[in-house]
Amino acid sequence: MAHVIVDPESSSLAERWAVIKTPRTNRKRYPEACVTLVADEQSALAQADPRRNLHAARVYGPSVSSESQRIYYLVRWLNPS
User: Fold this and answer.
1) Cβ neighbour number for residue 59 with a 10 Å cutoff
2) Which residues make Cβ contacts (< 8 Å) with residue 74, sequence separation at least 6?
3) How confident is the model over 5-50, as pLDDT tens digits?
4) Cα(46)–Cα(16) distance, rounded to whole angstroms?
5) Hey, what's the torsion of the CAs at 25, 16, 8, 76, to 10 degrees?
6) H or E element in which residue 73 lies
7) pLDDT over 60 (residue 74)
8) Which of 7, 68, 3, 6 is nearest to 32 (CA)?
9) Residue 55: per-residue pLDDT
């Protein structure tokens, strides 16, 4: 995540567990509409289904892009594709 500036004092930007709906796992950021936040790592892994393009991940955000869209940055995938 070297391309993201992390603000340790921010209350809205944080690392979170998530399930991302995407056919491509080679991107570094994902729009909020593709990201479902979950409570913990086990929940993310339980909801993941690569056949349905649902991938468990650790994300950072949400952040507002230059196009005024809320996005999450990928920290890491939990289930390798």
Assistant:
1) 24
2) 1, 20, 27, 28, 29, 30, 57, 58, 59
3) 666 655 678 999 999 999 999 999 999 999 999 999 999 999 999 9
4) 16
5) -30
6) strand 70-77
7) yes
8) 68
9) 98
> Could you tell me the two tokens for 30?
């994902």
pLDDT at 79: 75
Is the Cβ–Cβ distance between 48 and 79 less than 8 Å? Answer: yes
**pTM for the structure as a whole:** 0.85
Return the CA Rg of the chain.
Answer: 12
Residue 4, classified by CB atoms within 10 Å of its CB into exposed (0-12), middle (13-18) or buried (19+), is middle
Quickly tell me which residue has 């939990």 as its tokens: 78
The residue whose two tokens read 């491509």 is: 24
Residue type for position 53: N
Distance CA 79, CA 77 (A): 6
Token code pair at residue 15? 């690392």
